[in-house]
Amino acid sequence: MQRGIATFTLDYGTCPKWLFDRMVRLGREMTRVLIEEYGPDEFIKRIADPVWFQSLGTVLAFDWNASGLTTILTAALKEAIRGQEQHFGVFICGGKGKTSRKTPDEILAWGERLNLPPAHANNLVYNSRMSAKVDSSLIQDGFQIYHHSFFFSKNGTWAVVQQGMNTRHLTARRYHWYSENIDDLVCEPHSGIATQISQPQVLNLTAKTSTKTRNLSAELVSSGFKTLMSDIELLKKHSTDLSKMMRVSVGGRKVTLLQLSSNEFHHHPVEDENFWDSPYLKKILEKLANNKPQNYEALLATKGVGPKTIRALSLVSEVIYGARPSYEDPARYSFAHGGKDATPYPVDRPTYDATIETLRKVVIKSRINPSEKNQALKRLEPISN
């Protein structure tokens, strides 16, 4: 998986109209040149790159380390191509807050206008919804998704840029998806996750090391509601005493509770959970047990399944059956294409220079007034130094 590399803090307020209007004008020209030079599919690919997305926002005059770059850049690009989507071959759906919930309708509306096969349009909607579910349920990092945008080309290539907020730390985290890099929607599907802070313990069920947990979770709901609830009751009973190895009998089955080594951690997240007696959780688990989803993706796609359901199944899989998931934050610190002190890795000068040079060429070819063009080129100077 490619790790995210930009950092930003949580913004409040609105973008001034004069600035937004300028971003729209320059964004329209940047988009036009990029698509004329590289094609719509390449434009989508670049949007899915956290560095490129961040750099584009900076060139369009937004603060490089502000969460508002994500929401305003997306809105500016959406407005910039309005009425010219079919000419460009690129379509942008969704946005911030309530607008994000309109994404499926916008995709379907474009599907009708473009005469896309219903199965194709519905598949785009499915990928949009699943990306939101994965980042809100499978990566439990304390960030609440509040922005979701779906980019796709006339050829079917798509990208997702969505952002979550952590009101406790006043920071934002951005998640990038790119269709051509995805083999499995629930196993390391991201092209990058950009963040300012790394969390000490994140339940990351998208990690390859969480494969056993995902598979066992699907098996648990297929084993039947009574069996699943017996496991949960067992977990509730012993959740306050997890430091010992214990063998118990449940419904005639011998199971072994997880042994937690004291030199690894002094407690387990299960000790702090308070949702075990939730009627809603039981209702969803019963629904899953009756539906018997074929795999973990189908489990997650089930209506009503959210973070608590996923976490409950993960904890049962880990504590009772030993299928420990990853608790490592999938996002990483980094700077541009590397750091001058070789942290987290040495600067990749060819890639770095290519990014700057491409942006410079696009700005030069844009049809904007000389003053705005010079300002955009000047904004590239701090990036390249």
Detailed description of the structure:
This protein has helices at 17-38, 40-47, 50-59, 68-80, 85-88, 103-113, 118-138, 211-222, 225-238, 279-291, 296-301, 307-319, 349-365, 370-384, and strands spanning 90-96, 139-140, 144-153, 158-166, 171-178, 190-195, 203-204, 247-250, 253-256. It is α+β, with helices and mostly antiparallel strands and 385 residues long. The strands form three sheets. It has a five-stranded antiparallel β-sheet, with helices on both faces. A two-stranded antiparallel sheet has the order 2-7. A hairpin with a 2-residue loop joins strand 8 (247-250) and strand 9 (253-256). 39% of the residues are buried.
Order of strands across the main sheet: 1-3-4-5-6
Report the structural category: alpha+beta
Low-confidence segments, given as residue ranges, are: 1-8, 242-248, 260-267, 333-347
For the largest beta-sheet, the strand count, sense and barrel status come to: 5 strands, antiparallel
Helix content: 40-55%
User: In whole angstroms, how far apart are the ends?
Assistant: 28 Å
Number of helices: 14
- How much is the radius of gyration in Å? 23 Å
Let me know the average pLDDT: 81
Order of H and E elements: HHHHHEHHEEEEEEHHEEHHHHH
